[in-house]
Amino acid sequence: MPLPLVFPTVFPTLAALGWTDFFQEQYDALGDESLRPMRVAIEHKDRFTLVGQSQGGDAHLTGLLLQNANRDGRRPAVGDWVAQADSGLIVHLFDRKSAFIRINSRGKPQVISSNIDLVIVLTSCNAEFNVRRIERYLSAIGQSGAQSAVVLTKIDLCENYEKYRDALHEICGDTPVFPVATPLATGLSELQSMLHKGRTISLVGSSGVGKSTLANALLGHELFETAEIRESDAKGRHTTTRRELAVLTGDRGIIIDTPGMRELHLGANKEGLDNAFADIQKLAASCQFRDCHHLKEPNCAVRGAVEEERLRNFHALVADGDRAKEYTKRAGKKLQRGSTRGRKR
Ligand SMILES: Nc1nc2c(ncn2[C@@H]2O[C@H](COP(=O)(O)OP(=O)(O)OP(=O)(O)O)[C@@H](O)[C@H]2O)c(=O)[nH]1
Ligand SMILES: [Mg+2]
Ligand SMILES: [Zn+2]
After folding, report:
1. Given a cut of 90, is residue 337 above it in pLDDT?
2. CA 161 to each of CA 177, 184, 215: distance values in angstroms, whole numbers, following the listed order
3. Residue 52 sits in the same domain as residue 136
């Protein structure tokens, strides 16, 4: 239904939604100007909520795309660019430039957010805090093709938040760390400076760390539901139940809120490990053996120089990666590529 003219609605430009030459070239190759490029804001069971230059709304996949999705998981995810036909159907899924992928509880790769530029992992100054978990997140982000940042929330509830911040600095390498107290707007201006036109930011982390609270603060209104955590153990209530993309006003980019993750499984690859363990990578240059695993080899420059727990986590992620290698090679890559076929209606 067309909107009444008394309520003029300004739709963002494609560039403000994150559209780049990478997607334009794919669009041109389709050779059909009647197709509308749209971005997936919400993924429902049977349909997708789209945003774009024109009125969005919900759309279904063509039979062929549905077949692809069922056969090998090439299904649009939040953040994906798709082409919508005049019929309203989604007829094409564009290749991804990046994707944050985790292995779900059934052992299958699942795209948490697609075409992201920055993934921010949130953690709180309370019982939730665990540097080993952050290392796992940083490995996953390193594999996604996006940049990483860490936000330390709830510094207002903590006597000595510097202790948490310093522990993060020790493991974060070049990844920036932003301490915040979101309800007081403390630290938010530093985060605002990370936002810009067309840039897509995804928020990830455990339930209750304040992802939706931060998303709302950046948006400037309460779009996402939030809820208090359990006092006894600082556990969140899994308030957010779906991944959702929202466009920030004033050409400040795009934000994707996600549900709290219980566990993060991933097949760590080299990019991921380099992102999370740059110190180990650097030290390894001085190991006697070029292919040193930093386990029992003589003259290892890493063992002894890197904290034991950190090195153990590194080894666990390497083992995880070896196990999942075949899987990510086939499924992960395919997920990252999205679909380039099937624009028949
Ligand atoms: N004092 C304080 N409270 C915060 C801060 N950030 C978030 N909270 C509170 O923490 C609780 C949980 O916040 P949510 O934003 O719902 O957490 P979430 O990460 O989205 O959780 P899920 O949706 O379950 O994954 C809410 O009561 C927030 O008000 C902060 O920096 N300081
Ligand atoms: Mg939430
Ligand atoms: Zn070594």
Report:
1. no
2. 13, 15, 22
3. no
176: left (phi over 0), alpha (psi -120 to 50) or beta: beta
Q: 236 C-alpha vs ligand 2 centroid, how far in Å?
A: 9
Pocket of ligand 1, beta carbon within 6 A: 153-154, 156-157, 180-183, 207-213, 226-229, 236-240, 259-260
Q: Please answer whether residues 108 and 77 qualify as being in contact, where contact means their C-beta atoms are separated by less than 8 angstroms.
A: no
Query: What pTM was estimated for this model as a whole?
Result: 0.90
For ligand 1, atom 10: residue with the closest CA:
210
Nearest CA-CA partner of 186 in 217, 209, 211: 217
For residue 113, the CA-to-ligand 3 centroid distance in Å is 35
Is residue 258's pLDDT more than 50? yes
Q: Which runs of E-coded beta strand occur in 167-324?
A: 177-179, 200-204, 244-247, 254-257
- The structural domain count of the chain equals 3
Tens digit of pLDDT for each residue in 259-298? 998 877 766 788 899 999 999 999 999 999 999 999 999 9
Query: Which residue, by CA, sits nearest to atom 9 of ligand 1?
Result: 210
Task: State the distance between the two ends of the chain, measured CA to CA, in whole angstroms.
Answer: 23
Cβ atoms within 10 Å, residue 298: 8
222 & 284 share domain: no
The Cα–Cα gap between 163 and 130 comes to: 12
Residue at token pair 């999205």 = 338
Mean pLDDT of 187-199: 96
Q: Does residue 267 sit within a domain? A: no
Dist CA 334 CA 298 (whole Å): 40
Q: What is the DSSP string of 299-338?
A: T-SSBTTB-HHHHHHHHHHHHHHHHHHHHIIIIIHHHHH-
Bridge partner residues of 93 (DSSP): 82
Range of the domain at 295: 277-312
Q: How far is the CA of 182 from the centre of ligand 1 (A)?
A: 9
Domain for residue 154, yes or no?
yes
Q: Which two tokens stand for residue 91?
A: 């007829």
